[in-house]
Each structure stands twice: as structure tokens, then as C-alpha cells.
Amino acid sequence: MQSWQFSSTANASATKIAPHKNTVSSEPIPGGYLQENVNDTNKLTALSISVWVKPDYSQGSPEFTVISKYNSFILSINNIIPATQIAKFSVFNGIKWYTVESTTQIPQQWTHLASTFNGTAICLYVNEKMESCNPLPETLISVRGDLTITKLNNLTSDSDIVIGAYVNPVRENVSNQFNGLVDAVKLYDTPLQPPQVSEIFNENKQKYQDYKEPDSFATDTLSAILP
User: Which whole-number Å values give the CA distances from 193 to 24, 27, 48, 115, in the listed order?
Assistant: First the structure.
């Protein structure tokens, strides 16, 4: 199992992310988003995301993007759009997006989110509990004039991984920026099973229960770590 871990090179325990108007950058921008090119995520037959978040709903975009990859996947939290303060995980099949939503609201305190894609279904976890799991339907498309049924066997995009926003490189547009704190972002090239999600949550929950926000946050370049 391969994983990609995004973390600051400094010792701060969280990355602070809030709305801003700067252009796309490969470095964290105070009050911005983080962007990293990870070629190994350009074609994925399976994907899992694990992340700790602490949203601040007092301001910001209608929807908070936690992590995204253009025309591939989005993990986000609704801010003011209905249903408010729920988490969502979406994947793109080249034609349309498919989404699974949490059944509980995400509070303004540290919460663990996990999402999985295995080619046939997408699932979403909140604090180790599986909130929703939806099968991915087959899609009818036209190939050289003939109709054929296709399945979403993989997620394909050569765009960057973006933490804290959704970046459209074609239109050079940045939207749905996160407001709050994001920490311990991990991507896996395999679908995590419920016991694995529980293990990740329980290994770290005490750390976030005891977390005290520092006076300042690191702004070092992100690094992708391949174990």
C-alpha cells in the first residue's frame, strides 16, 4: 500500500487555511491554499483520504474544500449551502460527478474525515463511523456513434493535489476555499477498510482533543512523502 502524506516541514502541528485572493502557488500562503504535484495520483484505481479538520464557519466560501484534484475528486464541507456543515466526497467519471454525503454535521472542533473509492462505490467516514456508502452507477456513452455502458474504473487527472481549495487550471480559477485548520492529510492508493479507519482515528484522537492552537503557523513548502 502506497500513501502520500502532506505536512509542513516546520514543527507546527497544523496548517491554517483561510480565504485569500492570491494566485496559484506551490507554497502554502498564509490565509491561502496548498498545492502539490504528485504524479503517482494521476491515475488511481483506488483511493482513500484521511484528514483532520477544524472548520470555522464564521466566514468564507459557501463550501469548504478540504482536498481536491481537478476533474478527479473533492473532499469538502458545506458552509452555508444546504445541507449546512455536512461533509461530502465526490469523484468524476469524465462526464459527471458522483457524491456521497455525511449524515451528521461537522462541528467547529477537530474532526477526522476519511473517504474511499474502490471503482464500484464511494464511502465517507466521520470520526471512524461510516456515514454513507453509495454504489457508482454505470454510465451510457457514445463511442464512434455506438452506445456503450462504462464503469468508473479509475480516477484520471494530471492536475495538482490542492489542500484548502478547488483549482480549475483550464480557467485559472480558484474556488470554495477552506476556512479553519487542516492537519495530517494522507492519501492511499487502496480503499481503507473500516477497521483501518478506526485505527487511524483512535491513534490520533487524543492528540486533537488536547490540541492548543499556536500563536503562529508554519508557511513552509509542502512535501509529498512516499514511505
Answer: 34, 33, 10, 10
In SS3 terms, the chain reads as: CCEEEEECCCCCCCEEECCCCCCCCCCCCCCCCEEECCHHHCEECCEEEEEEEEECCCCCCCEEEEEEECCCEEEEEECCCCCCCEEEEEEECCCCEEEEEEEEECCCCCEEEEEEECCCEEEEEECCEEEEEEECCCEEEEECCEEEEECCCCEECCCCEEECCEEECCCCEEECCCCEEEEEEEEECCCCCHHHHHHHHHHHHHHHHCCCCCCCCCCCCCEEECC
The pTM assigned to this predicted structure is 0.81
| Domain CATH for 150 | 2.60.120.200
Cα–Cα distance, 97 to 134 (Å, whole number): 13
Residues of the domain holding 209: 3-225
Are β-strands 111-117 and 121-126 bridged in parallel, bridged antiparallel, or unpaired? antiparallel
pLDDT per residue as tens digits for the range 190-211: 999 999 999 999 999 998 888 7
**Domain tally for the chain?**
1
Identify the weakest region by mean pLDDT among 11-25, 67-81, 121-135, 150-164: 11-25
Total number of residues shown for the chain: 227
C-alpha cell at 221: 513548502
Q: Which of 62, 52, 57, 55 is closest to 125 using CA atoms?
A: 52
